[in-house]
Amino acid sequence: MARIDAMTGDEVAAEAMRQINPDVVAAYPITPQTEIVQNFSQFVADGRVKTEMVRVESEHSAMSACIGAEAAGARAMTATCANGLALMWEVLYIAASYRLPIVMPVVNRALSGPINIHCDHSDSMGARDSGWIQLYSENCQEVYDNIIQAVRIGEDKEVLLPVMVCFDGFIISHATERVKLLEDDAVKKFVGEFSIEHPLLDIEHPVTYGPLDLFDYYFEHKRQQIEAMEKVPAVIEKVGEEYARLSGRKYGLFESFNLESADLVIVAAGSATGTIKATIEELKNENIDNVGLLKIRAFRPFPYKQIKEILKDKNCIAVMDRSVSFGAMGGPIFLEIRSCLYDVDKKPQVVNYIYGLGGRELSMEHIKKVAVDLAKIKKAGKIENLVSYLGLRE
């Protein structure tokens, strides 16, 4: 039996962690992630988990402690965002390279400077090539479901990679929504017991983590990481199907909304996809029914083969990015979408919209403008502006 509650994104992230009951949580607070570790520390104090909570002096230390715990044979978790994620940058790569399936909620927040505590995706998108799996969440329900599934995805023996579960700061982290929660025993059974094949504390079978790895073997070890990441899409779908049988909620690599009959497509990730869905429904009421949404759930690995099949026959595509890739030809999601459509025989017209930086509001009127722009591109057969900026003051 599931129970229904009203919770914020941070509260439901902490609740998912409580039900997972990790062996170790190493924590350092940073707005707007603070309430995750604050709520979880209360669970520790109340004896509702068996977790060893390590209160560290920085986010770099938090990830370092998780690496040590996981390598020793413990299931470890932490949470962070923005400048905290940047501070642990060095050890993000180490966690992935050591093939340690740490799960970390990342509450998306703009990176300094100037100082800003509100949402955009510059933090997690900046870490997109660190070797971590990245799942993006639309709402509080998806935060809960993604964190639970992330444990199984990362710990799969074909994968063994760390996972970020990303959700928008304040927009989701501090917004209260109706959430369906599983029973504790159901979550416990779903995630199972953690076991690592070569724990550091097994003194009968000693191993080394993190040795010097020069040109003689480093390349081969990176190739192994690549192969592990290539296996992730199938594992995400397998875990999603199993989770659907448990919860009634099915998750895949992405979500399609009004996409089958649409020839104008908007691609986005995070909380903005809820606004886009509502706008598409409103456009239907105005007899405009040819606009669809492709919601990115798994950004790393990027499911380019599957997305190519979905988008190859569409006419015009608008990719919405809540972050900037400075000096590139557009935002991170745009670059991936355009690349995966490169060898399609009849290429769709693809444009990019940068939006919501530093927490700037995204309205339904903004989405309607995107739909109108796509219709104009379709009619003209050409693109005037490859990259545009929604809601930017002139």
Word description of this protein:
- With 394 residues, this protein is of the alpha/beta class.
- The protein has 2 domains: 3-247, Thiamin diphosphate (ThDP)-binding fold, Pyr/PP domains (Rossmann fold, 3-Layer(aba) Sandwich), CATH 3.40.50; 254-390, Rossmann fold (3-Layer(aba) Sandwich).
- It is 40% helix and 18% strand.
- The chain contains 14 helices and 15 strands.
- It has helices at residues 9-20, 34-45, 59-72, 82-87, 89-97, 122-126, 140-155, 184-191, 218-230, 232-247, 272-285, 304-311, 332-340, 364-380; strands at 3-8, 24-27, 52-55, 76-77, 103-108, 133-136, 163-168, 176-181, 254-257, 264-268, 291-296, 298-300, 316-321, 349-354, 387-389.
- The strands form 4 sheets. It has a 6-stranded mixed sheet with strand order 9-11-10-13-14-15, sandwiched between helices. A 4-stranded mixed sheet has the order 5-7-6-12.
- Strand 6 (133-136), helix 7 and strand 7 (163-168) form a beta-alpha-beta unit.
- Helix 1 (9-20) crosses helix 2 (34-45) and helix 11 crosses helix 14 (364-380).
- The N and C termini lie far apart (53 Å).
- The relative contact order is 0.11.
- The mean pLDDT is 97.
What is the CATH class designation of the largest domain? Alpha Beta
Say how many strands there are: 15
Compute the average pLDDT: 97
DSSP helix fraction? 40-55%
Shape: globular
C-alpha end-to-end distance = 53 Å
CATH topology of the largest domain: Rossmann fold
**SSE-based structural type:** alpha/beta
